[in-house]
Write a structure and sequence with these properties.
Chain A: It is a multi-pass membrane protein. The complex is a heterodimer. By secondary structure, chain A is mainly α. Chain A is about 70% helix and about 0% strand. The radius of gyration of chain A is 23 Å and the shape is globular. Chain B is globular. The chains are: A mainly alpha, B alpha/beta.
């Protein structure tokens, strides 16, 4: 039963939640706002919240200078491809860890997570050399592989926690009815875990979309995604904040919209397992 | 024409078209560059180059530090992603010495390599061989508000001393109206605050190393330089200057919040541009200062230059592009379309001999500043290195970034000048020992 909460308290918590939410959203809002200013207004002090001449010029300049669609397409392929590949590898892995654990399963899970603790730059040279060796530099397939590998621990962990929620008896029943391993995973486990898989997919698309170390260091002209697009507008000598903001807004817009539409799934995915 | 002949003719045409497309595809060069105004302008003109030569150009524009990391990785792993790289004066002699760059010793006669400013040519060469062609060059100078100077009843000499700068800063500071006498870089990083404090050190008679590669931060010149800088900025600089770099100061100056700003000469075209700067019509220029009685001034020397990594498959096309982009004709092309104030400065003698360019308000001071900088003899006492605001050894970037962090802690009031210098001395000597210099 839900706890009774007094009205003032409700108002207070709502206000706090809104404040935190707005604080978190403010940088994004500011970026979007700046993208509609002139360069001089972008650096104005005190900052301009309103009363400036709304201009689309920055977007026109960015459109003219960069091939946005090519960067966008690369981002879609790389984020989508790495997530899909990750799921294909992670579902069987999480299945075995959740339903047929061995003595070492917990250690393996922790060890997988520990690979995330190494700063990426630590393996820059080994990965670069491998890429040169296999001709993967500046290819989408190369990036798909790398991003899949770096996100794999998170995918496996998330799926593992979902699968643990599913009673093993159901799978046992399927087996008694004569289902093979493939059928058991494909027709029994997966449909039941669809909400969990969906939120894992979403989170990983976002992580891969925003990944800005490997996507900058392993690409040049042909496979560069939106992170490289944004980076190309940052300048050490010259103030191009309005253009940089326009480029950033264009880069985050697709993922922001995806996030809005799938909010429910995301929240569910991130809080799953907290309540049993 | 029978349908069959028509079909044949069409296929032949298609084949030719395909072959041409394939040929054009073969000669597309990839260029890594930074997002600076002159570079972006050049990207706009590359279609003309492609029309002229049939060579396609792909641009990869990156943030300066990412670019440096990216091209270093590419060169050291032989990645071959780029046919031309935009690099600076720090990298060129080191990479040239390592054999990572294609020597530019067979440029065409009409390119007129002797027209390149000697200081630039010297800084982009190793053992007398040019390894990168300067696209634009810069030094540093004083930019000041002529109106505030007048109000203060002072006149800026062409070659001021630090003592005068201090006096002027004091006279111009007006905290109530948020006007600060002087804005300087404090932001950590070897190319940001590190570069500035190094040249400031030079102008007080300090140096990074003695002839045996011993760090010199325990010498009185460094203490004098750093103390002067910290007091000047604490008294007359903007609050939070420990995190200000080029762009932050540019923004402050354009908003009219700085009386003086000592920084890269390329900033002159920004602060005098009425579209972005609120003080465009009242900016004057002077040589970077020195301490009273010290012969070295605090101006640096830098060039953004185009180089060809060894191992590219398209060396000829790359050379063709470099000759085009750093030529006299390119400068004229930009002047014709966008005016003389917007041409890439600081690379060629002929530009400064051009009467049309001499009318640009900051042209003469830029050239004087570049000529006042000597990367082969940067300090009062002799040093074993080349470079003014940097030391052209591979270890420098790491060491100077750490040292500039120590100094930034002084700017932020977290440690004293003595502590910072002692730490800088220890960490520099340790790093140089580990690298086998001493």
């Amino acid at each position: 039963m839900a706890r009774a909460v007094s009205t003032p308290r409700k108002i207070a918590t709502t206000a706090v939640a809104w404040t935190i939410g707005l604080l978190i959203f403010f940088p994004i809002y500011w970026t979007i706002l700046t993208s509609f200013k002139t360069e001089a207004q972008a650096i104005a002090n005190p900052p301009l919240f309103w009363g400036f001449d709304f201009t689309l010029e920055n977007y026109a300049v960015v459109q003219e200078r960069s091939n946005y669609m090519r960067f966008l397409w690369n981002s879609v392929i790389i984020a989508g491809g790495s997530t899909l590949l990750g799921i294909l590898v992670a579902v069987p892995a999480a299945w075995s860890m959740a339903f047929v654990p061995s003595r070492r399963t917990k250690d393996i899970l922790l060890w997988m997570l520990s690979t995330k603790m190494l700063p990426a730059v630590g393996v820059l040279y080994p990965i670069s050399l491998l890429f040169v060796q296999f001709g993967l530099l500046d290819t989408r397939i190369g990036l798909i592989l790398v991003l899949m590998l770096i996100n794999l621990p998170i995918i496996v962990w998330m799926l593992y926690t979902y699968f643990k929620e599913i009673p093993g008896e159901i799978l046992e029943a399927a087996r008694m009815d004569g289902a093979g391993l493939r059928q058991e995973i494909l027709y029994v486990l997966t449909p039941m875990a669809i909400p969990g898989i969906a939120s894992t997919v979403l989170l990983n698309v976002i992580l891969a979309w925003n990944e800005a170390f490997w996507t900058l260091n392993l690409t040049a002209a042909s496979a560069a995604p939106l992170t490289a697009f944004i980076a190309s507008y940052s300048s050490p000598e010259g103030l191009f904040y309005a253009k940089l903001s326009a480029a950033s807004t264009m880069a985050i817009a697709p993922i922001l919209i995806l996030g809005w539409f799938s909010q429910k799934q995301l929240v569910r995915g991130l809080t799953f397992g907290a309540v049993k | 024409m029978s349908p069959r002949t028509a079909l044949r003719a069409t296929s032949a045409l298609a084949l030719v078209a395909f072959a041409t497309a394939a040929a054009a595809q073969d000669t597309t060069i990839t260029i890594a560059t930074v997002n600076n105004g002159d570079m972006i302008r050049m990207q706009g003109y590359t279609d003309l180059f492609t029309e002229e030569t049939g060579i396609g150009v792909e641009w990869v524009t990156l943030e300066e530090n990412v670019l440096r990391q990216r091209v270093t990785t590419d060169i050291t792993t032989n990645g071959g992603q780029f046919d031309i790289m935009t690099i600076g004066m720090y990298e060129t002699p080191i990479w040239g010495a390592n054999g990572w760059l294609v020597p530019l010793d067979d440029l065409s006669e009409e390119y007129d390599v002797d027209d390149i400013l000697p200081a630039m040519r010297g800084g982009l060469s190793h053992d007398g061989t040019l390894y990168a062609a300067p696209f634009y060059g810069e030094s540093s100078m004083v930019m000041y508000r002529t109106d505030l100077m007048e109000q203060a009843g002072l006149e800026m000499p062409d070659a001021p001393t630090w003592q005068f700068i201090r006096q002027a800063a004091e006279a111009m500071t007006d905290p109530e109206n948020e006007v600060y006498g002087i804005c300087l870089r404090g932001k950590p990083g070897w190319g940001e605050g590190g570069a500035f404090i190094t040249v400031a050190g030079n102008s007080f008679g300090a140096r990074w190393f003695d002839q045996d590669w011993n760090a010199q931060f325990d010498q009185p010149e460094w203490e004098e330089a750093l103390t002067f800088f910290v007091e000047l900025m604490n008294d007359f600089g903007p609050p939070g200057y420990a995190t200000n770099g080029f762009n932050e100061n540019l923004s402050l100056f354009q908003q009219g919040r700085c009386g003086m700003w000592i920084d890269a000469t390329v900033a002159a075209s920004f602060v005098t541009n009425p579209a972005d700067s609120s003080v465009a019509d009242s900016v004057g220029f002077a040589l970077a200062p020195n301490a009273d009685g010290v012969e070295k001034r605090s101006n640096w020397l830098w060039a953004w230059a185009l180089a060809i990594p060894a191992g590219t498959q398209k060396e000829d096309a790359a050379k063709q592009f470099i000759e085009w982009a750093t030529s006299k004709d390119y400068i004229e092309l930009v002047a014709e379309n966008e005016g003389w104030a917007n041409v890439p400065p600081g690379a060629r003698n002929s530009l400064y001999e051009n009467p049309a360019y001499q009318e640009v308000p900051f042209a003469a001071m830029t050239l004087d500043s570049i000529n006042a900088a000597d990367p082969t003899n940067p300090t009062v006492d002799p040093v074993p290195y080349i470079g003014i605001q940097f030391v052209a050894i591979p270890e420098f970037a790491g060491i100077a970034t750490e040292v500039s962090q120590e100094f930034a802690e002084v700017y932020a009031g977290q440690q004293t000048v003595e502590e910072a210098l002692a730490n800088a001395q220890a960490l520099t000597n340790d790093a140089m020992e580990a690298a086998g210099y001493r």
